Amino acid sequence: MPVSVTNSRLIYDAFKECDIRLLSALPETWLVHLIRMADDDPEMILVRLAKEEEGVGVSAGAHFAGVKSAMLMQNHGFLASINGIVSFAHLYKIPLLMLISYRGSFGERDPWQTQGGNATEPVLRALGIPYSFLDSVDAVKKRIQQAQTLADSSSQPVALLLPRDLMWEE
Amino acid sequence: MLRLDCLRSIYSELENCLVVTIMGAVAAELHSLGHRPNFFYLQHSMGLASSTGLGLALCLPEQKVIVIDGDGSLLMNLGSLSTMARYRPRKLVHVVFDNESLLSVGGFPTATSTGTDLEGIARAAGIPRVATVRSVENLKAAVTDAVHGNELTTIIAKVEATGPAGYVTDLSLLENQFQFRRHIQSLKKRRRSGRGVRIPIKRR
């Protein structure tokens, strides 16, 4: 499976540097190594969800507990989480760090991913969620730290999109 | 059985727990009995009260956490039962007031009124301790047992579909959030002086 282990490790190491101690996740192809790394790490609380929206509640609970967390999901999982994001994280000003694999964009071969790809950025913009891309290896660590800093200082959800070029080795 | 009587009967048990409730009648009734800084009322986001309790319980494994859920909310997030069962935090108690109705939005009947069995669903999801109660005495006994026990428990309390006249309280949502979090941080500070941090057992 040509999902980049090296770049997954880079992202995971950045989580650790950001003192992230809880990850919620729902498996998807691009995230497999990240989830495995969390599973192998005795210091990380990994919460495997049935549906991504649960992760909003889990992260809010972690925030109340004073534990830094991140949500790992596919863009379709983000679309499935919207009510939780709006009527919990936005309504109650809960910082959320969301890492979203950007399926259905340029280079996508799976037809079923493409509509979600079209909708992802317009929906992020419509919800007023600040977002950026992990689009270069050199920027991964800094961008994750910046996203976490903004989520914490603004007490709101912030999204990082994981693009094909970072996650997939053709 | 009235939910308000149930809440009154367990109110003293809630003192040393972190309490997360759903919106509407449950929040208004608990608030009417006297707000405490360890109560968080999730005034929307139906279904996520149990997920919030799970996040708290996983991050604070020594802390008792009670989620006060409802049939309408739980039916919106049945997957939460399987996620809770997967990690089964020992200090998490999940009380579900089942009035077979979406009372706060007009009283339309939920699927528990036509035979859906939340106790059966919770048990089949893998929640280790599950019970249904139909009297205030049994509810109080079941909650007391669960709070002092050491196993994830879901208690279905069958109640009448009646509630307060209004649902808005004088506690702003943000004030509640900030106060709840600050309360937990003060508990952690107190605890830190007593004992070390326990690393939770990893479950897959």
What keywords describe this structure?
heterodimer; A: alpha/beta; six-stranded parallel beta sheet; 8 helices; 46% helix; globular; B: 204 residues
The helix content of chain A is: 40-55%
Rg estimate of chain B, integer Å: 16 Å
Spell out the helices and strands of chain B N to C.
HEHEHEHHEEEHEHEH
Major beta sheet of chain A, specifics? 6 strands, parallel
Helix-strand string of chain A: HEHEHEHHEHEHEH
Distance between the termini of chain B: 39 Å
What is the number of beta strands of chain A? 6
The largest sheet of chain B has its strands arranged as 2-1-3-4-8-7
Q: Strand share of the residues of chain B? A: 15-25%
Overall number of strands of chain B: 8
Q: In terms of quaternary structure, what is this?
A: heterodimer
**Residue windows where pLDDT falls under 50 for at least 5 positions of chain B:** none
Poorly predicted regions of chain A: none
The pair of chains with the biggest contact is: A-B, 36 and 40 residues
The chain-level mean pLDDT of chain B equals 94
Assess the beta-strand content of chain A as a share of residues: 15-25%
Contiguous helical run count of chain A: 8
Structural class, judged by helices and strands of chain B? alpha/beta
The general outline of chain A is globular
* Spatial order of strands in the largest sheet of chain A: 2-1-3-4-6-5
Would you write up a description of this structure?
The complex is a heterodimer of chains A (about 170) and B (about 200). Chain A has about 170 residues and is α/β, with parallel strands linked by helices. Helix content of chain A is about 45%, strand content about 20%. Chain A has helices spanning about 5-15, 30-40, 55-65, 75-80, 80-90, 115-125, 140-155, 165; strands at about 20-25, 45-50, 70-75, 95-100, 130-135, 155-160. Chain A has a six-stranded parallel β-sheet, sandwiched between helices. In chain A, helix 1 (about 5-15) packs across helix 2 (about 30-40), helix 1 runs parallel beside helix 7 and helix 3 (about 55-65) runs parallel beside helix 5 (about 80-90). The longest helix of chain A has 15 residues, at about 140-155. The mean pLDDT of chain A is about 95. Chain B is built from eight helices and eight strands; from the N terminus they run αβαβαβααβββαβαβα. In chain B, strand 7 (about 130-135), helix 7 (about 135-150) and strand 8 (about 155-160) form a beta-alpha-beta unit. A six-stranded parallel β-sheet of chain B has the order 2-1-3-4-8-7, sandwiched between helices. In chain B, strands 5-6 form a two-stranded antiparallel sheet. In chain B, about 50% of the residues are buried. Chain B has about 200 residues and is α/β, with parallel strands linked by helices. The interface of A and B includes residues 66 and 84 of A.
